[in-house]
Amino acid sequence: MMVNMAPLPRDVLRDVFGYQSFLPLQEEIIRRSLAGEDALVLMPTGGGKSLCFQVPALCREGLTLVISPLVALMKDQVGALKANGVAADFLNSTQNAIEAERVMTRIEAGTLKLLYLSPERLFSGLSGRLSSWNIGLVAIDEAHCISFWGHDFRPEYTKLGQLRSILPGVPLMALTATADPAIRRDILAQLAIDEAAVYQSSFDRPNLHLAVLPGLKRMERIVDFLARHPGQAGIVYCLSRAGTEELAEKLRVKGHRARAYHAGMATEDRSAVQEAFLRDDLDIVCATVAFGMGIDKSNVRWVIHYNLPKNLEGFYQEIGRAGRDGLPADTLLFYSYSDVAQQLKFMDDANPDRRALLAAKLERMKQYAEALQCRRRILLSYFGETPETDCGHCDVCENPPQTFDGTVTAQKLLSAVYRTGGRATARQCALILRGSNAQEVVEPGWHDLKTFGAGKELKFEEWMEYASQLINAGYVGVSYDRGMTLGLTVLSNPVLKGERRVPLVKFRSFEEKKAAAPQPKAVSTTDGDPDLYEALKAVRRRIADEVGVPAYVVFSDKTLKDMAAKAPRSREQFRQVHGVGEAKLEHYGTVFLRAIEEQQNRGRSENPSLN
Ligand code: ADP
Ligand code: ZN
Question: Quick check: is 19 in a domain?
Fold first, then answer.
């Protein structure tokens, strides 16, 4: 127990949170915050932002105020803090008057260390009382909500600048996972934080595997992907509400525990899905981007994007929801031209300036999807980092493209584009080249063209692939506003005349790619005895249900994994497990130690030879 003397950050890290060392930047941010300085903390999802204000809150006198945009987010964070024995609570609209009064009493008695609040709640009647609360630090979580340029703009956040005059001299700490320069400038200006107080950690998340597949036969690919992640929690992001429901239904038919989540659903239904997912009662959520901001679940093992997202910030935040516990996690993005067209259509209503910005962001997203070089380098360079080497942990690194002289192939396609007068789509050009008698070829009379059947040596999929490479390289244009038809560009003529050679990346079917790629390891969830791990999971589950919190609030997967590997036999050994602090040792030590002992006895009686 901490009495009288202010505890040191390292002791709090070990005794309260059960961790042995700080993650990059945490220690410096904490030290400077305790010295009374402001901070803007830019870290990727899973980078460990919360501890940056939670540790100082416990090392200093008085109350730390945490501004948080979502009720669900508060509830989870406070739940996790309470499980670690921290005096934390929240004030929000889900409480009745008696509950709120109880929290008020603790604030006024000075026994609460952390108080979570939404800005709406803060500015509806509480701001006048703040100065009497002995506040030592104000943390503003999801600080990008302050910026009009952010994707989660919240008008109430713009009032937070007033905290400067309401609480003069109290340090502010703003935190976000969005590193966009415009948003960052906005946060600094509105909160009057100095440029010198910016802490930006690397946005690299090396445990995330990155992969992209063409948006063909998506369902088959998903089934294949899920076979490598049996029973593991994951999210599939879809563009439309209908899309989420259809996909969830298909996955249920295949025997998966999947449900849809989107903003059109009733609030109760949405919370039910979210709760079930948090409690591991549901493995797969098929969701629109409405899902995720409040999801603080550390054991999401994979994220799939069924459709192309509109920008890399959103994409990175969404895949960042996987593997927050630092264990390996898998991501997969499907990419098709019709998704690009759809995203462009969404931009139609925006004013011209905004539209140009959005289109430029979409272009970067496309470049990532079409990459022929390490995808992580592209992602990180978007966030202003310049890694020196390829990552070795993305599909491009694992399976580097081989190029060949594709000039003749290009000429054939260009000739089909030319002879159809810019009225045919990539699909129709491919059918023409293959000599197909499909109605969409015969009706416009394209079976009479000179190029009809000129490309039978290649399969339909191969033509589609080369068409998209030629589009990406600028040899062919696509009219997004005219039904995705293909046209010639300034680069086309030199190719048709044989003045310019065109390198193409050799087509490989999905099966070939899969065979060539190093077999993706099914994510191993334990280094220790798998039966022990399962037994520990069952104990965690039982406790979570009894206490009424998500399983990971009791212990993260990483903690259980470490516990299974160390198989502690004493309280002292149990204390060494990653993520075990004093409170959890006290509450759960006995139960888990007993489970470990029982499991080991069982193991021995089943394997008498080991005795
Ligand atoms: P963010 O808010 O930046 O997305 P969190 O604060 O939720 O990230 O932290 C991500 C995960 O990392 C959490 O499970 C957290 O408990 C864990 N974590 C944070 N700091 C440390 C540390 N110093 N050592 C080990 N694990 C940590
Ligand atoms: Zn790579």
Answer: yes
